[in-house]
Amino acid sequence: MTAPLHEGRPTTTRRALPDTQQGMRRRNLARVLHAVSDEGPLSRAAIASRIGLTRAAVSTLVDELVRWGLLEELGPERPNRVGRPGSALAVSGRGPAGIGAEVGVDHLSVCAVDLRGEVRARAVRHGANRGRAPKPVVQELTALVRQVVADAEREGLWPAGLAVAVPGLVARDGHTVVHAPNLDWHGTDLRALLPADLPPTVDNEANFGALAELWLGDATPPDFLHVSAEIGIGAAVVVDGRLLRGKRGFAGELGHVPVHPDGPRCACGGRGCLEQYAGEEAVLRAAGLEPRGDAVGVLAQRAGEDHEGARRALEDAGRALGIALTGAVNLLDPEAVVLGGALAGLAPWLLPSLRNELADRTTGPACPVTVSRLGSEGPLLGAAHSVVRAVLDDPARVTERS
Amino acid sequence: MTAPLHEGRPTTTRRALPDTQQGMRRRNLARVLHAVSDEGPLSRAAIASRIGLTRAAVSTLVDELVRWGLLEELGPERPNRVGRPGSALAVSGRGPAGIGAEVGVDHLSVCAVDLRGEVRARAVRHGANRGRAPKPVVQELTALVRQVVADAEREGLWPAGLAVAVPGLVARDGHTVVHAPNLDWHGTDLRALLPADLPPTVDNEANFGALAELWLGDATPPDFLHVSAEIGIGAAVVVDGRLLRGKRGFAGELGHVPVHPDGPRCACGGRGCLEQYAGEEAVLRAAGLEPRGDAVGVLAQRAGEDHEGARRALEDAGRALGIALTGAVNLLDPEAVVLGGALAGLAPWLLPSLRNELADRTTGPACPVTVSRLGSEGPLLGAAHSVVRAVLDDPARVTERS
Which of A37, A67, A94 is the last residue of a domain? Predict the structure, then answer.
């Protein structure tokens, strides 16, 4: 059905368009679509004045975007002054949709987001995936994807691409899970397991969570560090609105920053890593609670009930997070640190000691620490929106599907 | 004489050229100049085939670059086959030059680098600047700049811009030194103190050192962490060939990453920062040596003489560097760590324990640690080359000088 709209990772490695008439046309198509997406509905004249092209050039570009189903005419505006009334243009709610999927430790979820950014279809399956082989898990995920695509098609949408969030490290090829410790997956090529008609872009859940924060968060700055805790402690570094990936795609391993360098051995080979103090298992143990599937849920519940051990363990974890984040803030000088994913739910108990530690270790104003509004929804939304952004950034790609 | 060629920082915040015919022409001028700079001398036909434009389009662009003094004709090539012989084009050695300057704790230095990357003039003044007021220091620097510009002009070059490396934090405005602890400068606007006809771009010496490594180093990868020690411990993070600056321009403060979080108080407000273990003063003290102006020189000399205290102190410093770099490598996943600036001279005694620590704390292959060939020359060369790169990246700017 559809060819891949993006190779590798659309959100960070935008394909450089050649500096030719054809490349210029593609970039201008993107500028028109972005103008309407950011500020629309807009008339052709309003688009022209916003992006600095002539009315005639904009009309030609708009015609193409309407033909491809990316823009739609809202009908003639009531003219406020003499002259031919302009027709307002809006981003289409019946064109391409981004399909996002998430493989969680305890769930699978899929959604379809239209070019306007609205979730139009959704499916979830609860059940533990820990220790299951990749193949049956991906088969179930495929069934959910088919269901969501069918629902979206009934609304006049078509899938422009599939992006999958996983709780593990992903190679820079954008489809191989190098290691997902809580699933026990190693070197799993998800592109080979998912249907060939919808080749996926795969990324770490912390990365997609950070992108969701960037795109959908309330006034999220373009430079921030997003910290989440779906598996141990993950982080994503966003610089100038782009994810920092690192050479192998492994950047953001905040969980293995040494906090007490002579501390306990960690599975990573290090000693006294942040995960030994603020990872789910370590915190559960310190709180005197039984290890459980939904560790974060248990901790939040107990801390909410004033369980002394849970509160103290979270306070200590906040202190360890504060030490590791002091190092990260010194290296990166971000505008903010955002606690997202599962950590967002524990913020009330982590934040006081975390903020104290950061402030004590900094001269001048400490880096602000905020809590994500998206919480555990972030990775799934980030995945779907990454496909939508790829279309907005290069609309001509939709003509390349076979 | 010359208007500023770049506002802010040419090397990282390239001015986005508008997507118009004019913008396309400017970008194509840069592509022609880069092609000759990277692979020259080249004929017009060879340029055309390399950058994918027609021979006619390239000829027009070349004519402009020759007229502006950026390219020069080497005369007709010997034709290997029938047809009109093409004339080979080379980057001019008589056009614009980048003027680099460095305010060191114990020296001032200035150089002029031509578009071919060759140092064509140079001046140095030795003498302690620690604790001197900015004004007399900058007056001496200005005299050196005048001398180097005069020398360069005698060779047919003209100054395309001035870039100044300083041992301190620089605001994102690109000209205000927020704090240079070893000079005791605070909030010093160097643009106001330097001559108005050559407004400077100012940056931290660690940043210019890292850029020099990127541009001039042997096979330096596009993603690396550059660690230097002109003042305490500085680092620069290079991602995709660009400096990561941070919100306030303070990124790369490796010296204040907590290594032993309950360790001694640091002037930054923190505890157990890397500088408390691997900064010049701390290492001298641990070695049982007197504090001196050229701490690194003293340490290298004593360690070379097998001074037991110096060797042990450097081994311990290497260990602390290894712990802080483990955190940095986990966060950034760089392709390499490069020891530059003054640290390059201490590498023989720092590296064994540093590498051990990194390897012990990592599963799989540890991030490679290499030593810069440029050493303490890096910041000055990086400054001068930043001006040269600004011209190569947007040659039309040279027409904008008044």
Answer: A94
Identify whether A15 is part of a domain: no
Residues A290 and A351 in one domain: yes
Contact criterion met (CB < 8 Å) for B334 and A246? yes
What is the signed CA dihedral for A296, A297, A301, A306, rounded to 10 degrees? 0
pLDDT at B39 exceeding the cut of 80: yes
Query: Residues A159, A222: one domain?
Result: no
Sheet hosting strand B169-170, strand order edge to edge: B169-170, B176-180, B185-189
Domain coverage including residue B275: 219-373
Confidence band of B248 (pLDDT split at 50, 70, 90):
confident
Count up the domains in chain A and report the number: 3
Instruction: State the count of interchain CB pairs (< 8 A) between A and B.
Output: 138
Is the overall model pTM greater than 0.95, yes or no? no
Helix (H, G, I), strand (E, B) or coil at B190: helix
Same domain, A231 and A280: yes
Give tens-digit pLDDT for B356-400. 999 999 877 889 999 998 988 999 999 999 999 999 999 998 887
B205 and B338, same structural domain?
no
pLDDT band for position A218 (cuts 50, 70, 90): confident
The verdict on a CB contact (< 8 Å) between A331 and B269 is no
Contacts of B334 in chain A (CB under 8 A): 246-247
**Rounded distance, CA B354 to CA B309, Å?**
18
Mark whether B201 and B225 lie in a shared domain: no
CB < 8 Å to A324, chain B: 327
Q: What pLDDT, on a 0 to 100 scale, did the predictor assign at position B78? A: 55
What is the CATH classification number for the domain harbouring B105? 3.30.420.40
How far away is chain B from the Cα of A372, in angstroms, using its nearest Cα?
Answer: 20
Q: Are residues B327 and B365 in the same domain?
A: yes
Select the residue from B178, B330, B353 to test the A interface by mutation, using most A Cβ atoms within 10 A: B330
Residues A183 and A40 in one domain: no
